[in-house]
Each structure stands twice: as structure tokens, then as C-alpha cells.
Amino acid sequence: MKLAYYPGCVAKESGRELDLSTRWVCQALGIELAEFPKFSCCGSGFIDEANELLSIAINARNLAIAEAAGLDLMTVCSTCQGMLSLAKLRMEDPAVRAKVDATLKPLGINYRGTSKVTHLLRVLVEDVGLEAIRAKVKRPLAGLKVGAFYGCHLLRPADEMDWESPEEPHAFENLLSALGAEPVLYRGRVMCCGFPIQFVKAETAGRIAGRQILDAKDHGADAMATPCPLCHISLDAYQRPAAKLVGRPLDMPVFHLPQLVALAFGASPKDLGFSRHMVSPEAALAKLAPSAR
Amino acid sequence: MLRHEVVVVGAGLAGQRAALAAVEAGRDVAIVTKLHPLRSHSGAAQGGINAAIGANDSVDAHIFDTVKGSDYLGDQDAIEFFCREAGPTVLEMEHFGTIFTRTEDGSLAQRPFGGAGFPRTVYAADRTGLALLQGLWERLGSERFTLYEEWELARIVVRGGRAQGIIAFDRKTGAIQGMAAKAIVIATGGAGRIYGRTTNAHSCTGDGMAVAYQAGAFLKDMEFVQFHPTALLEGGILVTEGARGEGGILKNASGERFMSRYAPKVLELASRDVVARAITTEILEGRGFQGPYGPFVHLELMHLGREKIESRLQEISDLCRSFAGLDPATDPIPIAPAQHYMMGGIGTNIQGETNVPGLYSAGEAACVSIHGANRLGGNSLMETLVFGKSAGTAAAAYAAGAAEATLEPGDLDAVATTLRGWSERKDGEDPSALRAELQQTMDRYVNIFRNAADLAEGLRRVRALKDRFCRVRVVDPSRVFNLNLSDAIETGHMIDLAEVILVGALARTESRGAHFRKDYPKRDDAQWMKHTLARSTPGGPELSYSPVGFTRWEPKERVY
Amino acid sequence: MSADTIPVTFDVYRFQPGKDATPRFQRYTLDLTPHTPVLTGLLRIRDEIDPSLGLRYSCRSAICGSCAMQVNSKSRLACETQVGPEVELHGRIVVEPMLNQPVVRDLVVDQSPFWREYQKIEPHLKVDPRRPMPVGKVTPMTPAQVDRFQGTPRCIACAACYSACPAVGSDPAFPGPMALAKLYRFAVDPRDAARQDRLVRIQTEGLWLCLRCHLCTEACPKDVRPSERIRDLKEMAIAVQGATEHGSKHAVGFKRNIREGGTLNEMKLVRQTYGIFGMLPQLPYGLKIWRKKPEVARRPPPIEGREELEGIYRELDREGER
């Protein structure tokens, strides 16, 4: 399998532990990741707030880049997934298509809408398959209770994202089970992490993040895992202020999705960038069954 | 003791329009409502609101269609006033901010409707009631008045020959309050829930009609109950006449478009009573479909195409999906008639005045009469606004000149004692059970096709229920949001109204409009060109009759 | 539809403030056909088993908005939710009152906060007295102008969106999706003369607290899609007033930020949002993050094909045009 790899801005820079672990997992599974230095930011929903057409157009350009190579595009961020999928959907509207084409064609960009937009989570669960994943597990994550946190834009609006049930998704939990971990169900797993307003009103963002972490904690999670580096920033990097805002200690390690997969596949923890997390995953790793450590 | 100059009971379109008129006249106005105004049943109206504003239409044509639609029982002076006000009324609603469906040139779109010789039904997709309710509530929102939300009407106090106020029950706290008022406008809607199979909301229990009747107001023409031809088979949810207006057709189990036999000229767009009887006849004569939820016929919209359905009939498309599990663009819709509207109600004149000074009424709760024996679709939404304004204006004028109103402590005590008695009873009748029996009785004995034997049996049963209601028992002791108590209050009202309907239906030995008697199948103008009036007495409803108002149209045989 | 029934277990939230110390769940079981609405089940519980259950309901046809509640943790209309699919997914029907509104009794909530937010946006047409509506004629409005309202006229004020919204639950300064969708409805109404004022005002009255999480759009039973209308409001507000709040500064800053190098310069974005002095309070904690992730302060290398991006911006970026 060969995919156009769309890491998004954070995975390339401050969230590079996500990029690291993604490459590790894809190499282990024989998924070839084609790189495109032309990819721009997806706008993260913020450009969409300022100028919807601009957001669609820059993402149509991103999609056209993958199309030109004849490849489907893989994201590792729920928000990138949401933005690129949304752009693809909006481009099906003839009026929007006409306006965007009028901008792109003079620049030599020919959008055709032929590349699919997928996320690493979907690739693992749907394309690789849980059987194949199970077969690759060398270090089952037995003893680790993990609360998946999907990230809004992977799921909603459901009729636009056209994937799992927005209230009762199970793909991530099924993957966690295949890795040997025990998935923890809690309401917050499909809720918002607060990231979009982290730089609008930090206290509110923190309260929201804190609430979801508490929910996972109160349902017994030793750790959380997310397919979105922006959620990771909110839940991990800003966990300390969140704990103050909800008035309870949180101490919840937050993994990137591919870090857990790599760990289960036998990667050494020191190769997965855990030292870059604000909340050390040591306590979670200590929960792994002795045979696994 | 609370005090206001004008109290409007009911916050749907008629109540809100009356309140607006009274506020604009400078009065201190209160609205008392058992639901938040935006939850009123006005919002469930789908198809549209009639006004003769089209270039090739005329007010006279609207008047004639309404007169004919009423089977000549409508008062023509009232109908003339109504139709003349319709154009300015729809204009006013647009200026208030209502969002209507438009034509390419920017004017109001109008669709054909039953019994209308011209497409004059102004609409907002198929949620016209909701659009008007929002527009009016938003307009009213910038005015000053007092809203008593989730209050139930228990009594209207009449003393010294005039209305003095109301006693009402606050559902949120259980408190019983007296409200002195110089003028009262009853705009509480219809009473469809006396039937089991009805398009009406659960809240349509006729409280205002019943309480006004108990206070001495006449109820007029109560035997004329409209059955809407097309309600979803299971549950009776309304499928708008607008669906037929957009081209929907009816078919029996043989695939025959049977309306050609009943209304050769206009087929599905005949007046509602004609279509309802046609469907029922097809079913009774064995040409209907059979199923576990009862017999039905098909309403077909498939030939309209998905685009037209999704744009003009989006609400009913959703209803079919959510409540009948089907897609009207590909599937025929199983429908059967259901109770829908009360032509009858509190008797008023064109100004909304009842026979009790200081007491007014408008909307479905009232009977002017503009609908006579059968209402045209699209006229009810217009009725709420035209007569809501009339009644509110007249009530405000009366209040401006009237002496202070007073309530006495005994007024409150009487109600409190009654309600307390229901709660203190050690055993007695369950209000939901009484209500269910009432609904079964009305469905079985007072339906589209009537006869003396059925009506007599129905009346006997309703009277038995009335006796049993004397021992009604409320088991929920709570003061807060006690629906058990609300059920009891409403059931009592509904039993009273059912009795009035039955007495009137038994007495009227003819068929006219929606009142069809198999034993008297012909219209009898010589004997029955008159309105039924019912007055409450200790022995039950006492009937009298009043003449129909004629202006220009001679009664003719009614064919579509 | 078949008339075969299945046993359905309802676990219903019961609470009477002043009488009950804490809320409890009461279990009822009924035999119902799978397509029976939850509301019908609750009303049968009231009629046949327990008349003391409190809930709001009226039309049973998804137009009055009375019966919004949480069914298996999702805010929606009980009359439109069928028991069959819920039993299949969850094994039972858990019924609770809506969130973000105080409980009056059982499933009945006090909707005053919801109505207050609605009133705050001044939901009525404001006509310019110098340009009154045409006398004796309707205001002309084309079908295209009516389309601009999108789904907002379908709103039945059920408050399912308000109940589902995490921002409402976390910050009283956020007006909630319904009020904002209503604001949109007035902002695009050609008859309303206050568009500019409305957009300017809402920028300081909570518009930018919307998380665009789309939980409201999922919850809405009438396809109003409030989160998408809120997005429209944000773009309209920036177009009218420019970037005056943290939220709008962040969005506009992000847009400009990407134009420069194609990918995000994180440190610069913080400065664009808060200004140099505004950034200072964030510095202490920012330094802690920087120690773990030094890239937050790094300017990323520009993308290839940056001229293409510049070409797109030149064509579509309307900044500076009011």
C-alpha cells in the first residue's frame, strides 16, 4: 500500500513524536509513505472561520497534489482529516467548484476529486485489518486501560465525515483491543477537547479538557490515546492548567495513536518521543503486565 | 391576587395577535398559557394561509369559496369581513418578519388548496404555522406584557353580569392564583384530543371552550367536527393538504384514483369533508388496504419527483421518514382520515365578543362563524390572525371603558377545594382511563358517518363518564409539575365538550358539511339553515338556535 | 410496518428538588413495537404504571420542541426516537433530562437560561425608520434570498443543541448554538437594517467561544446545522469589523500566518492573537512547553510551491475589502 502522507503542521514540528511513531508503524506494516514538500497547512478550521472559500481552495490544492501522484491521502490528525474531507465535499457543489477552479487553474492546478482522504486510524482498522494488526503484536498492552479520544473532526458532522456513528464509534476501541489493551468507554471520548478556543479563552478550553480527562479517569482509564495532535496539545500540553481549573489532580498520560501501536509492535519506548510529553507516560507504562515491559 | 386590564388565555397565533392588538391599544396585558408560546399547536399547521392577493384572484372569489365550503352555514357578513382582511393580514405578517416561500419575482408564492377555485394559499414550505408563529412571537417580543407560562385555566369568574377574571393553576409550583381582569380573550385552540385518532397535539383539550361554557358562554355549532382526509395511518400525524395542492393523488387498493367518482371536477382538491367521506367510503366498501394498524388508502407523491418534495414538502418528507419509515419520493404513503379541527366553539360576533360582557374569543376556540359546517384548508391560520386582532382590539376598548374587576376569596377557594378533593380521595377514577374511554367513544360513535343509534349510544356513554368523573382521583401528591392533576382537569373539560357535541349532533337531523348522518343524508335548508347554540345547565347542555347571516349568496347544492 | 412487539426496558431519571435528596433511576418495562417512539413509551408508563412521571410533550410530531431530553445520553426529541434501534444498540432506554438547564422535576428542565440567551440577541426585525418597509406591498425577496436563511427557519427551539453544547456547559459567556443560529437568521434577512450592529456586538458577546465541535448540528432534529451558521457568522463578523477579539485575531492571524510559509509558525501565531504584551502572561508556562518541545519557537521551513499558495491568497483573500 502506498499513500500520500499528509502530516499536518504540528506533526512536523512541535508534535514530531507523532510523525516519528507514524513512520515506525507504517514501516512495520509495509505501508509506503510518499512525501510531498508542497503540502500546505489545512487551515485547521481557523482559516475556514476567516474565509471559507480560501480554506476550500488551499485544501483542494493539497488534494490535487496527491491526485497528481495518483495516490490517496493519509492524515494523522483528526482536524486535518476534517478539513480536507470538508473541502472535498464542498468541491462537489458546482458553484463552489467553479469559483475554486477559476483560482486554481491559472496556477496550473487541476483538481479532479479522485483522491480519497483517509486517516491512519482508518488505514489500520479498515485497510490493514485487525487480524493483521493482532499478528504483528509482540508486546501486548495487557494491563493498560486506555480511554480513546477521537477528536470532533474525525466524526462530525456525521453526514459529511461519512464514517462511524458519532455517538457510538468503535474503531479506535477495537484497535486498542487488538493491541491487547483494555479500552475504557466514557461519554467524553466523542466530545471536544477545547483546543479551538485555547487561544481565545484559555480557562474555558481548560475546563472542557479537564472535564473529558476526569471522565476518562473516573471510568478507570490509566491513559488516554488520541488520533489528533491538537487534542494531544489540549489534553497533554495544557493538562496542568486544566487540572487547576477543574480542581482535581488529573495525572493522565496521553498517547498519540501510533505510539501505542508501535509500542505494541515492539518498539522501544525511547524511540517514540515520550520524553516530549508534558505528562510523563511512565505511570501508564508501569501498568503494563510485567512480561510486556 | 394578580390584576391586569386584559388577559389573553392561550398563546398560539390567535392569542398572540390579540395580545399584540391590546398592547398596541395601550392596555396592560397578560398572556396566560399552558405551554411556552412557541410550543402552541399553531406551529403544527403545515400547508398555508389564504389570501386573495393574486393578480387574477378576487376577494369575492375567496368569499364564495368559503361560503360554499361552509355548506352555506357560514355567516356571509363575517366571511366578507374575513376575506377582505386577509390580504392586509398576510402583508402585516410579512412585515413582522415571517419568512415565506417566494416566487422568482420576489412576491409571495401561493399554492392550490382544497375547495379553492384559485391558488391563493400563501405558504412557507410546509411549515407555515411555524413560520407565522416565529414571526409573530418575535414581533410581540419587543412589546411589554406579562407572560404566565405553564399556567392552566381552571375557571372564568362572572359576576354582576360581566367577566371579572380567571382562576388559574401554575403547573410549575402547584399554586392556584386568581387574576382579576376587565377583559378576557379565550384563544386556547381546539379540542381534538377528545378523539383517539386526531392530528392534534396532546395539549389540545379544549380547556378555554369548556371553562367559558361553564361560565355561561354559548358554544356554537359544536357538532361540526372536521376530519382531515390525510393523516398518517399510525398515530394520526397530519400530512398537509398542500401535498395534494402540489399534485399528490389518492389511490385505493385497486390502484384506482377514486376521487374522480366523488369530485369529478377537482378530484383530490375537493373540500375536506368530501375527501374524508370519499376515503372512508372506499374503506367501508372494501376497496381500502388492510393492515395491523387499520384500513387505509395511499397518498402518492412519487410522481412529483424528489426535488419538488424536498423543497416544497420537506417537513412531511421528514415526517414520513421518522414516523412511517418510508420515503415519499419512492413509496406511497398509507393514510386515513383523522379528527383535525373544530368548526364549532365559543360563539362570537365579528368583534370576537361572546354573550358574556368582557369575555372574548378568537381562533379555533371561537366560532364566528366563518367556517360554517366545514372549513377550507388555509382559512384557519388566517382566522387566528384576523379574529385575534378583532378580539384583542375589542377587548382593549372594553377594558379601557370598564369599571375595575374584582375577584372574591371564595372564587379561589372553590377551585382549591375541588382540586384538593380529587387529591384527598382514597379511591376513585383514574383520569387517564376516563380519557381513554372518552376517546374510544368519540372515535366509534361520533365519526365521519353518523346515525341516531350511534349518537344516542355515544351520548349515553359520555354521560356515564361524566358521572364517573365526579369521583376522579389524583394519586400524585406533588405540587411541582403534577401532570396527573393536569390530566384530571383536562379530562373534565373534554367530557363536557363531548356532551355538547353529541347533543348537538343528535338534534341536527340533516347532513351538512362535516356533519353527515346516514339516517338523514340530505342537506335540509328549510329546517336546518341555523346555528346550534349550547348553554350549560345543571341538567346538561340546553340547545337553542340562531339564524345564519346572508349577504349576497343564495344557498345552492354543493358539488365539487 | 409489523405489529410484533419486543420487551423494552426504560431506566428513567427521577428527581424532585425539595423532596428527593439525590436523583435516582426508576425502571419500567413495556412490550412495544420497534418503531414505537420513546415518547409513546413514556406516556404509556404515565397512563398504565406511574402517573407521577414528569415530562413535557405536546405535538408528538417533531414540531413543537417540547419533548427534547437525553435518550441514551444523546439530546434529541423523544417523539422522533424509536425504541427498536436504541434497544439494539444499548439494550435498554436510558432517559434523562436535558443538560445545561436546571431540573424542575424528573425530565422537566427550567429553560430560562436558554430563552434568556435567545432574547439577548434581540430576535426581531429592526427596520431602519429612514427606510421603512413598502406600504401596502410585501418586501420583495427572491428565492435566492430565502435560500440564504439555510436551515435556520426550521428551528423549533427545542434546546437539544443547547443541551449538547460543551461550551454552554463550561462558560456562561457563550450564548449557545440556538441564539447564534437565530442571530444568523437576522443577519441575512434583507429586511433587517441592523446587520452590522448585530455582527459587531456578537463578536464581544461570545461568538468566538464556539468550539466548532458540531455536537449541536448532530443533536438538532430539524437540520438547522447551527455550527455551520456560526462559522458563517464568524466570517461575516470579520468582514464587517475586522479582527477585534482574540478569536477573530486568531483566525485572521492564522490565515496570514499560513500565507507566509505555507505551514504554521506557532510562536508567531500567539503573538498575532495576543500582541507582544498580551503574550507575556503565557510566557512562564510557555517556557515549560518549550523545554519539552523546542520546535514551538522555531520558524518552520517554507513549503515548496509557495507561489501557488500566494496566487490563491491573492485571488481569494478579501482582507481589507469591507
Explained architecture:
The complex is a heterotrimer of chains A (293), B (560) and C (322). Chain A has 293 residues and is of the alpha/beta class. Chain A contains 15 helices and 8 strands. In chain A, the strands form 2 sheets. In chain A, strands 2-1-3-4 form a 4-stranded parallel sheet, sandwiched between helices. The radius of gyration of chain A is 19 Å and the shape is globular. Chain B is 37% helix and 19% strand. In chain B, the strands form 5 sheets. In chain B, strands 1, 2, 6, 7, 8, 9 and 16 form a 7-stranded mixed sheet that branches. Chain B is built from 16 helices and 21 strands. Chain C has 322 residues and is an alpha+beta fold. Chain C has 14 helices and 7 strands. Chain C has helices at residues 38-49, 83-90, 112-120, 143-147, 160-164, 166-170, 177-187, 195-204, 215-219, 226-241, 246-261, 266-279, 283-292, 306-316; strands at 6-14, 24-32, 68-71, 74-77, 93-96, 103-105, 108-109. In chain C, a hairpin with a 2-residue loop joins strand 6 and strand 7. In chain C, helix 11 packs across helix 12. The longest helix of chain C is centred in the C-terminal third of the chain and has 16 residues, at 226-241. Chain C is globular. The mean pLDDT of chain C is 94. Chains in contact: A-C, B-C. At the A-C interface, helix 1, helix 3, helix 4 and helix 11 of A face helix 6, helix 9, helix 10, helix 11 and helix 12 of C.
Largest sheet: number of strands, sense, barrel closure of chain A: 4 strands, parallel
Unreliable stretches of chain B (pLDDT < 50, length at least 5) are none
- What is the total tally of β strands of chain B? 21
Rg of chain A (C-alpha, Å):
19 Å
Number of strands of chain A: 8
Q: How confident overall, as mean pLDDT of chain B?
A: 96
> Which structural class best describes the helix and strand composition of chain B?
alpha/beta
The span between the termini of chain B is 55 Å
Q: What is the share of helical residues of chain B?
A: 25-40%
Task: Please state the structural category of chain A.
Answer: alpha/beta
- The average pLDDT score of chain A comes to 95
The low-confidence runs of chain A, each spanning 5 or more residues with pLDDT under 50, are none
Number of DSSP helices of chain A? 15
